[in-house]
Amino acid sequence: MWHLLEPLHALLYYAPEAFDEAAALGYETGERWPSYFAWRSAPLGAAGPVRVASAFYSFSPEMVARYVPGATSAAPGDVLAARLRAVDRTYRAVLGEGTVKSPELAEAAELARRAAESAVAAGRPLAAANAALPWPEAPHLVLWQAATVLREHRGDGHLAALLAADLDPVEALVSFAAVGAAPEAVFGSRGWSAAEWSAARARLAARGLVDEAGAATEAGRALRAEVELRTDELAAGPWDALGPEGTGRLAELLGGPWLAAIGSGLLPSENTLGIGKI
Questions:
Q1: pLDDT per residue over 2-12, tens digit each?
Q2: What angle do CA 164, 166, 171 make, to 5 degrees?
Q3: Which of 23, 103, 180, 198 is least enclosed, having the fewest CB within 10 Å?
Q4: What is the 3-state secondary structure (H, E, C) of 173-222?
Q5: Alpha carbon distance, N-terminus to C-terminus of the chain
């Protein structure tokens, strides 16, 4: 379900319509990070870089400090309103008016909302912040907001799994690259310096988790497999609540929108989330 929903959420970070809305708020759009941090952190309110780095986990705190709050930051409420406008415009452009207005999408939105509303947000700051937002009226916006609550719920649980595995933020990325989730260069987008990356690799090597070339050892692969399994287990609650019939029906309904999102060309083929590989 995460593989189906994540692309529908992530369009916000790459669509030209979203950059238009960000520019109207005063954000620099020559790169995606100013608007990314604005869109994703807005539900937390006026959170500073320390809180955002803690919630996002895998980004270098120095990188977060460059973009949060930012010299031209808008009020969180204005960012949230613009975020929905951006999703509305993006979905109409990518999915098409016919899909946006279809009964199938409305049904998918209702099922996804049921799953999202059943997600227990205790101990999950990003899930809780998004779950506390009012629901929009339009079904395609409901679908996006539900996808967002569910992906942040899963992400918060993933951070708990990383902490239980004793993987700090940069070690989490090094170990993920080591199992082939994406090339190391792709993880450079998270802002860690070469020295910080090398030091994290040395720490993992000392634990027997990577070899001299930086590839995962058998123990390293086992640890990452345990992290992914625990992430799945911690994310299962909403789908258990929706049940196999509802979950299966939602998966069926998401097929068309998922293909449209993937086929839009907006999303990167290589990403730090391991979509399609993990």
A1: 999 999 999 99
A2: 130
A3: 103
A4: HHHHHHCCCCCHHHHHHHCCCHHHHHHHHHHHHHCCCECCCCCECHHHHH
A5: 13
